[in-house]
Design brief:
Layout lengths: L8 E3 L3 H6 L2 H22 L1 H7 L3 H32 L5 H8 L14 H4 L3 H28 L2 E3 L3 H16 L1
Antiparallel strand pairs: 1-2
Length: 174
């Protein structure tokens, strides 16, 4: 097939893969890992004291939300570490996709509110809110990556047809 002949398929540019190797991803990675560290420090330290001061219903809400929080953060950290491994050449994108299937980003948590959430210590409530916002951002990025990993432009694409005509016109002049 010559350059002048139309191509059946053209692989699209993967904006998602470009994004995960960007400075913005590095900032997201640092933010996620810092949130994991801050949460662990809080739950292992001041959070224990805060939970002792709660009434029974508040203590139950604390236990529930802290378990949800740690589960969410483990999933997010696993996803971030997989993407970093690809960026640093430790894994191929295909290996990361296979491993990512083991890391289930849970359904997007709704923004926490309600009576039981109001009983939580302020610091834990802030950590939960931050993790939910981070989860939403990572899920959007994961969706972009999932779509870009399989995107192929069909030869019937009108834009591609116009580009092909331009290529032909310029190749005839040369």
């Amino acid at each position: 097939m010559s350059d002048a002949e139309p191509k059946d398929e053209i692989t699209a540019i993967s904006f998602g893969e470009k994004l995960v190797s960007s400075v913005a991803f590095k900032d997201l990675f640092r933010e996620g890992m810092a949130l994991v560290e801050n949460t662990a420090a809080y739950l292992d330290g001041p959070g224990r004291d805060d939970s002792r001061d709660l009434v029974r219903a508040g203590a139950l809400a604390y236990a529930t939300e802290s378990m949800r929080l740690t589960t969410r953060l483990m999933q997010l950290a696993s996803w971030l570490l997989l993407q970093r491994a690809v960026n640093e050449g430790e894994m191929t994108p295909e290996q990361a996709r296979r491993e990512k299937n083991k890391v289930k980003l849970s359904a997007l948590a709704p923004e926490p509110d309600g009576e039981s959430f109001a009983m939580l210590p302020d610091k834990l409530a802030d950590l939960v809110r931050h993790s939910v916002r981070l989860q939403a951002r990572i899920r959007r990025l994961d969706d972009v990556l999932a779509r870009s990993g399989s995107s192929v432009i069909d030869g019937d694409n009108a834009v591609e047809q116009q580009l092909e005509r331009l290529r032909q016109a310029f190749s005839q002049r040369a």
